[in-house]
Write a structure and sequence with these properties.
The protein has one domain: Aspartate Aminotransferase, domain 1. It has four helices and six strands, in the order αββββαββαα. It has helices at about 5-15, 50-60, 85-100, 105-115, and strands at about 15-20, 25-30, 35-40, 45-50, 65, 75-80. It has a six-stranded antiparallel sheet with strand order 1-2-3-4-6-5, covered by helices on one side. The chain starts with a helix and ends in a 6-residue tail after the last helix.
Length: about 120
């Protein structure tokens, strides 16, 4: 089972990433761009995800993944039940979300350091 501390540790390792609390919710950012955010009770993790792929992700496992709120549909965003994610899966989701908000040269450097992927 994944806990917020797992994501907190990973977020601290990713270049240019920092955490902050906004209205009581833990969020991870690069600059002003949020790439991961938790619900107030920390049971749901929202993360950056391509709009054009989210219907397939949610449709493939609707118990685990949900569409964002109506107001967030305009963003590249999806949500997941944190208890349903395994540590390897959450690591991949967080790193892929981070990739969406950093320059390509930064994510390329990460790939060179981690040739076998984020796991």
């Amino acid at each position: 089972m994944v806990v917020v501390e797992d994501v907190r540790a990973l977020g601290g390792e990713l270049e240019r990433s920092y955490q902050m609390y906004v209205r009581g919710r833990l969020k991870f950012r690069v600059g002003q761009l949020v790439y991961v955010a938790f619900s107030l009770d920390e049971t749901v993790m929202g993360f950056a995800f391509p709009k054009e792929e989210r219907a397939a992700l949610v449709g493939g496992n609707p118990r685990k993944f949900q569409m964002p709120s109506e107001s967030d549909m305009r963003f590249n965003w999806v949500e997941a039940d944190l208890a349903s994610l395994d540590p390897t899966e959450v690591r991949e989701l967080v790193v892929d979300a981070w990739r969406m908000v950093v320059p390509k040269k930064v994510s390329h450097t990460y790939d060179l350091i981690h040739p076998n992927g984020p796991g």
